[in-house]
Amino acid sequence: MKKWIALVLALVLALSLTACGKKMADGVYTAEIDDAATEAAYGWRDTLVVEYKDGKMVSASFESYDADGNKKSETTPETYPMDPAPSQWIPTLSANVLEAGEAKRIDNVAGATLASNNAKALLEAIEENGVAGETIQVSVSAAE
After folding, report:
1. Within 13 A of 38's CA, how many CA atoms are on the CB side?
2. Could you tell me if 98 and 57 are in contact, meaning their C-beta atoms sit under 8 angstroms apart?
3. Which end of the chain is more exposed for a tag (fewer CB within 10 A), N or C?
4. pTM strictly above 0.85
5. Per-residue CA distances from 72 to 9, 10, 31, 80 (Å)
6. What distance in Å separates the CA atoms of residue 58 and residue 52, rounded to the nearest whole number?
7. In whole angstroms, what separates CA 49 from the centre of its chain?
8. Phi-psi bin for 57: left (phi > 0), alpha (psi -120 to 50), beta?
9. Which of 92, 119, 115, 91 is nearest to 105 (CA)?
10. How far apart, in whole angstroms, are the C-alpha atoms of residue 76 and residue 10?
11. Cβ distance 33 to 40 under 8 Å?
12. Is the peptide bond before 81 cis (omega within 30 degrees of 0)?
């Protein structure tokens, strides 16, 4: 009897785990922080673009843009003094998003905690409310 109960419980657990993951439709999804979060980030708007094929993430690009469309990853130490430089951590964060494949598994980048947390929030929003081909606005707080 105990073996039967253990088997049933194991089966229920396995079924619940497979039902948890939402399969994303093929396409390109974009999410960006909203105006209030951009203002709090000194005018830089964090943006995440991910592509899914056959329900699997095949590309991920995290970037931050100023009001003129300039990329933070292309700033110089003279124009944006940060250590580590955005040209170093932004590609790493993009790679972390792709490697993780889902928001709750993204590894933070040392020295870029706020951007890492924003990447998680942006991917979570895509997973929950994303529509291929559309850009969604995401509210994030500086405390996240």
Report:
1. 17
2. yes
3. N
4. no
5. 50, 48, 17, 8
6. 6
7. 8
8. beta
9. 119
10. 54
11. no
12. no
Tokens found for residue 34: 């909203």
CATH number of 23-138: 3.90.1010.20
Q: At what angle do helices 86-100 and 113-129 cross, to 10 degrees?
A: 40
Chain length of the chain: 144
Residue pLDDT tens, the chain, 144 long: 666 455 444 544 444 444 445 689 999 999 999 999 999 999 999 999 999 999 999 999 999 999 999 999 999 999 999 999 999 999 999 999 999 999 999 999 999 999 999 999 999 999 999 999 999 999 997 544
| Residue 64: Cβ within 10 Å count | 24
Q: Which residues have CB under 8 Å from 23's CB, separation 6+?
A: 55
Report domain extents, the chain.
23-138
Residue type at position 97: V
Classify 109 as helix, strand or coil: coil
